[in-house]
Design goal:
Elements (H helix, E strand, L loop, with lengths): L1 H17 L3 H12 L4 H8 L8 H37 L18 H15 L3 E2 L5 E3 H4 L24 E3 L5 H9 L4 E10 L10 E11 L4 H16 L5 E8 L2 E10 L16 E10 L1 H6 L8 E8 H9 L12 H4 L3
Parallel strand pairs: 1-4
Antiparallel strand pairs: 2-3, 4-5, 5-9, 6-7, 7-8, 8-9
Helix pairs in contact: 1-2, 1-4, 2-4, 5-10
The chain binds phenylalanine.
Phenylalanine binds next to strand 8 and strand 9.
């Protein structure tokens, strides 16, 4: 009997040791410990043994069951461990492999200039708004006191879509649109694309402007000067000075062209400023009373100023290029420098 139990133990321990999967372990358990196993059969037979042998055989069988159970458990732990190891191996990350870098986009130099300009004006209390690029003659010209015989209206200068609809020639129509909708005080800047029939090294048929408009009680020309002087210093450097030259726009009176000291020669005179020491950057003036009348404001109650500057021109200065077309060719060798 003892040998038989010992042989059973060896068989079971060997079978457990050879089981390679959890299913195989289960099969071994059923085979050696199950209801129809040899062990169960032997246990049932205890009753028919002589009484003095029963405790000894009972103990042997209990030990056998314990040993088989232990062998199965040991093997189960080993299989689980092995499975875990294999899973980790299969999902292993090769951290030495360089990542795939996404090409990062960036702002176009003109957009960078626009963002900087708006940022400076935001600091001075101006809100940024935008208007339509396809405009009516009314907003682009009439309401801006620009009579029908004005040269800007000429087919040679302007892209017409119909007789009275056109691509805006400046961002000034947004002055009218905004004032129609609101009451003073008003402080806005309007960046956007504008269109003129014009193309050479410093002119493109599509270019960008930033319009400014401030309307309130007691606004003076000196407020315009102060705002533009602060802007020029912030935008082009702390030493930059501004100069106002008398000019004419139908929608401002008085009007001025505004120059800044040349940022390349500090006003000494160079090729960029054509030896004058000054660079023209914008047109400006006090809002003409006729413009206020067009939007139903009382010119006796309100005064204001407006200005319009070229974003592309400022970008050319910043990027130190003298051909505007470079800005629109989208050559990455140029764009990635900024
Ligand atoms: N709209 C004018 C232009 O395009 C610039 C300007 C704007 C002048 C506002 C005065 C006031 O030339």
């Amino acid at each position: 009997m003892e040998e038989k139990i010992q042989a059973l133990r060896e068989d079971a321990v060997e079978a457990a040791g050879e089981a390679g999967t959890l299913q195989a372990i289960e099969d071994v358990r059923v085979r050696f410990l199950g209801r129809r196993s040899e062990l169960t059969r032997l246990r049932k037979g205890i009753g028919s043994l002589p009484a003095e042998e029963r405790p000894t055989v009972g103990k042997l069988l209990t030990d056998l069951q314990g040993d088989i159970t232990t062998a199965l458990e040991t093997r189960t732990v080993a299989i689980r461990e092995e499975e875990r190891r294999r899973a980790i191996e299969a999902e292993r990350l090769d951290i030495s492999l360089p990542g795939r870098r996404r090409a990062l986009g960036g702002y176009h130099p003109i957009t960078q200039t626009k963002i900087r300009m708006c940022e400076i004006f935001r600091g001075l209390g101006f809100e940024e708004v935008e208007g339509p690029e396809v405009e009516t003659e009314y907003y682009n010209f009439d309401a801006l006191n620009t009579p029908s015989h004005h040269p800007a209206r000429d087919m040679h200068d302007t892209f017409y879509i119909t007789d009275s609809v056109l691509l805006r020639t400046h961002t000034s129509p947004m002055q009218i649109r905004y004032m129609e909708q609101r009451q003073p005080p008003i402080r806005i800047v309007v960046p956007g694309r504008v269109y003129r029939r014009d193309a050479d090294v410093s002119h493109s048929p599509m270019f960008h402007q930033l319009e400014g408009l401030l309307v309130d009680r007691d606004v003076r020309f000196s407020d315009l000067k102060g705002v533009l002087a602060v802007f020029a210093r912030e935008m082009f450097g702390a030493d930059t000075r501004v100069r106002f030259r008398p000019s004419y726009f139908p929608f401002t009176e008085p009007s001025a062209e505004v120059d800044i000291t040349c940022i390349f020669c500090d006003g000494d005179g160079c090729r960029v400023c054509k030896r004058t020491g000054w660079i023209e950057v914008l047109g400006a003036g006090a809002v003409d009373p006729e413009v206020f009348r067009a939007v139903g404001y009382d010119p006796e109650e309100y005064t204001g100023f407006a200005f319009g500057m070229g974003i592309d021109r400022a970008t050319m200065l910043r990027c130190r290029i003298n051909n505007i077309r470079i800005l629109f060719e989208n050559d990455m060798r140029f764009l990635t420098q900024f």
